[in-house]
Design a protein that fits this description.
heterodimer, A: mainly alpha, 2 domains, globular, B: alpha/beta, Rossmann fold, 6-stranded mixed β-sheet, about 15% strand, binds iron/sulfur cluster
């Protein structure tokens, strides 16, 4: 046995459990604002992820328990459930999870080796394959729990009256129709910052993110990088033309921005390694996401932005490799 | 005084109280003392006794060779044997050692004490070498080499940042005055203008004792340096603040690059136990024949033991009453120490701590999981390396890349492995990569040398051939000249036969 002979009682499992705990405020807000259907989706995703993980480990002849219990599959599952519409049919969720665990994770060699964020790969695959289903979001207070479960379990999709445009969709459509930002925000879809009701969920993620920072599971470089990247782009255009570009606050409170800032760009495996690299990576995601939201056709650009930045990680790492103590060029 | 902070670092459980609360105890003499000829990081000593000789305690039994140090009999007695013995080394290396059977009389032979104020610098430095003084923090670098180079600031390292170890703590508490005197002498030798004594703030008694000793300095120390030039500084408890470079940074703010020595930056660093040994050697003429060893962990009587050098580790442990469940003995601290392959090895100058490890105190590490690139290792690395990048490269045997991530700057402090949530034995990977790279460099060097030898041989053969050809040509020319001369002689002597005589000789050559 070799040094060190003593270890801090820390584990991958503890980190993953902390992440799951940090997601709880956001999930609670989700249940409160949109309904408990999300819990069913979370359960389906979790079961599918564990089954897929176990299967892949068996196929790859890897020890089962140690990886299965590390919690990483559950974190991926929860993120997928939270970024898919919460009334999506069960098979859509399961397919998404399979894409994440089987293709994005295990085909690349399992945890630690995958270059692409599994949850984001799943989202992109699903939105390309099922664009219609992926844009059916429940409106706040639109569907009771029974209806949500009915839809999740694959019941006939009579969705008039229970779905609604998301804040990002409403904004995009309004702007296409030559309305100005101010009048669009006047419609009932919007609350004080982002989508009515949804902004509370974003707030929940924000609180959970602060918890992760406090527990030192993540460092500030990533969330701040994302917020600065997205906020800066949005801010510049908003200052120049406030009637055609919504404010930074709107962008940060809408769609998956808060989830991305604290739970998605913070995936250590697929991100950059140095502190500066992390900041650049996250800022890149924020900037690209804003560009796709503003000029692209997809409802939210975060998933594509993350995958694009995943590709850049080796480059970022090479450019930002820190010098060891005493070797810095200027002190 | 404003302190700089250590970069990275960790705060493991200190476990100091187990051994720090009892005074230093003396160890009864064992039946045999095994004194290795190599006691420093330099050349081994040259034996000057033979089997059967009677020796006194402190008597030189091996003279210093080159930059090495002299070695001494740790007790009076008889030289029983000179042979190979296992040493305290991770690989269970054996080394030549002199075995002494003590007679129990403890008759000392001491040198004439020197007065630092009147003795010449050379004399003092030679005495340090002749007394066998090396760095006592574990590096066992000969102190006379360090004392010889001039410096601005002298750092005295009493940080003792590794968990469990308390020998420096006890030394400072009980013998602060001698430590301060030794430090002042070292300042005198190195020309240092000030002394900074760094002690981790989890040792308030030691700090108080050292401060008191500075206020009440011995006259001989005052001749070396004014008391107001000596500062005792409490440094925050954070491993590895006691690393030479780390302490230098904390106390002076100077960042020494990993490939440079601190000496080049106007700083010189000695351990408190080294300063103490210098005081004993110069002012009392005592050679280094014992050291304080912390014995702790799973033993009945943990504490600090003034142990004769050469005492078999097994006997020292036995004195402290190992408890059932002891699975192995660690030498050094839990962060950088190693498991002793053999307890027959003797206590040597670098042996600051022995820890009896049990499964409760040192649970076996959990199974290794894949790296999740969480960056915890990066945050704690005191050299600001990227351990996980070095790990990925080493694992893939991509050694060039590992080197580019500054593998050779790694001090193997173990902070990264300590925090890694995937339980990866990172330091093992780094040691492996370093040894592979060294082996490869060696091979490369050997190949280069072989090629150089081959080319040299070719060149030599070519030259020899050319020389031989030249020699032969010269000889031929000489022969020709001679024969020409002879011919002329003959020609002049025997006119008529000259033409006939020359022709066959020409044909011959
Ligand atoms: S601490 Fe361990 S798991 Fe985390 S990045 Fe470093 S090596 Fe990888
Ligand atoms: S062992 Fe090496 S890489 Fe790890 S923290 Fe210490 S210096 Fe850094």
């Amino acid at each position: 046995m070799t040094s060190p002979h003593t270890r801090q009682p820390d584990s991958v499992q503890r980190i993953m459990i902390t992440v799951l705990v940090a997601l709880l405020p956001g999930i609670a807000a989700y249940v409160w604002q949109v309904g408990a259907g999300i819990l069913v989706n979370l359960a389906i995703a979790t079961a599918a992820a564990l089954a897929a993980e176990a299967l892949m480990l068996r196929l790859r002849k890897r020890p089962l328990w140690i990886t299965l219990s590390d919690g990483s599959a559950v974190v991926t599952a929860w993120l997928i459930a939270l970024i898919l519409p919460s009334i999506a049919p069960w098979w859509l969720t399961v397919t998404g999870v399979l894409v994440a665990i089987v293709m994005a994770k295990h085909l690349y060699g399992g945890i630690g080796q995958n270059p692409f964020n599994p949850a984001m790969a799943a989202y992109c695959a699903m939105i390309v394959a099922y664009p219609a289903l992926m844009s059916q979001w429940p409106s706040v207070d639109g569907a009771d729990f029974a209806t949500q479960v009915h839809l999740i379990l694959g019941g006939s999709r009579e969705i008039d009256g229970i779905t609604g445009a998301t804040a990002l969709d409403a904004m995009r459509t309004g702007l296409r129709n030559q309305n100005d930002v101010h009048s669009i925000l006047g419609t009932g879809v919007f609350g004080f910052a982002g989508g009515r009701g949804w902004e509370w969920i974003a707030a929940g993620y924000f609180v959970g993110g602060l918890f992760l920072l406090a527990r030192r599971v993540i460092t500030w470089h990533l969330p701040l990088g994302f917020i600065v990247g997205m906020g800066l782009m949005a801010g510049i255009f908003w200052l120049v033309a406030p009637e055609s570009f919504p404010s930074p606050l709107f962008h940060l409170a809408s769609g998956g921005a808060m989830l991305a800032a604290f739970f998605i760009v913070t995936d250590p495996v697929t991100g950059a390694s140095s502190s500066l690299g992390k900041f650049i990576f996250a800022a890149g995601v924020g900037i690209i996401a804003w560009i796709i939201r503003t000029f692209g056709v997809y409802p939210d650009g975060i998933a594509f932005a993350v995958l694009l930045m995943n590709i850049c990680v080796p480059l970022i790492n090479r450019a930002t490799q820190p010098a060891p103590v005493g070797k810095r060029k200027s002190p | 005084m404003a302190l700089n902070s250590l970069r990275g670092g960790i705060e493991p459980d200190a476990h100091k109280k187990e051994s720090s609360e009892t005074p230093i105890r003396h160890v009864p003499l064992p039946s045999r003392l095994v004194v290795p000829l190599v006691q420093s990081s330099q050349e081994s000593a040259r034996t000057i006794i033979t089997v059967g000789d009677r020796v006194l305690k402190g008597q030189c039994i091996g003279e210093a060779e080159g930059a090495g140090i002299a070695i001494h009999a740790p007790a009076s007695g008889t030289v029983a044997e000179i042979g190979y013995y296992p040493m305290a080394h991770p690989s269970g290396l054996t080394s030549q050692a002199i075995v002494i059977e003590p007679d129990g009389e403890e008759h000392w032979i001491t040198y004439e004490p020197l007065d630092p104020a009147t003795a010449s610098r050379d004399e003092l430095i030679l005495r340090i070498q002749a007394s066998g003084i090396v760095g006592m923090g574990g590096a066992v670098f000969p102190s006379h080499i360090k004392a010889r180079s001039k410096t601005e600031t002298l750092l005295i390292n009493g940080a003792e940042c590794e968990p469990w170890i308390t020998c420096d703590d006890r030394l400072m508490r009980e013998r602060a005055s001698a430590v301060v005197t030794g430090s002042a002498i070292l300042a005198h030798l190195t020309g240092a203008r000030q002394i900074l004594i760094g002690i981790e703030d989890n040792k308030p008694e030691a700090i108080a004792a050292m401060r008191a000793a500075v206020c009440d300095m011995e006259p001989v120390a005052l001749k070396c340096l004014d008391a107001d030039k000596i500062t005792v500084i409490a440094v925050p408890t954070r491993y590895p603040s006691g690393g030479e470079r780390q302490l230098t940074r904390i106390l002076t703010g100077i960042e020494v690059p990993p490939d440079k020595r601190v000496t080049g930056f106007g700083v010189q660093c000695f351990n408190v136990a080294t300063a103490y040994a210098v005081c004993r050697a110069l002012l009392h003429g005592e050679s280094m024949v014992s050291r304080i060893v912390t014995v702790t962990g799973n033993v009945e009587r943990p504490g600090n033991y003034e142990t004769p050098l050469g005492m078999p580790i097994a006997e020292l442990i036995a004195l402290c009453g190992p408890k059932p469940g002891t699975t192995r003995i660690l030498m050094g601290g839990p962060m950088m120490g190693f498991t002793l392959p053999s307890l027959e090895a003797p206590v040597t100058k670098g042996c600051n701590c022995l820890i009896a490890a049990s499964a409760e105190l040192f649970p076996p590490s959990e199974p290794e999981q894949p790296c999740i690139r969480c960056g915890s290792c990066v945050n704690v690395c005191p050299i600001e390396l990227q351990p996980f990048e070095m790990y990925w490269s080493s694992r893939a045997k991509n050694f060039d890349s590992a080197r580019q991530y500054h593998l050779f700057s790694c001090m193997e402090c173990g902070c990264c492995a300590y925090v890694c949530p995937a339980h990866i034995p990172l330091v093992d990977y780094f040691r492996f990569a370093k040894s592979e790279i060294r082996a490869r460099d060696e091979e490369q060097k050997a190949a280069d040398q072989a090629r150089a030898r081959f080319e040299f041989r070719n060149a030599r053969l070519g030259r020899e051939k050319a020389e031989k050809a030249a020699r032969m040509a010269a000889k031929a020319a000489e022969t020709r000249a001679k024969s020409a001369g002879e011919a002329a002689l003959i020609a002049s002597a025997v006119d008529r036969t000259s033409a006939a005589a020359r022709t066959p000789r020409d044909r011959q050559s």
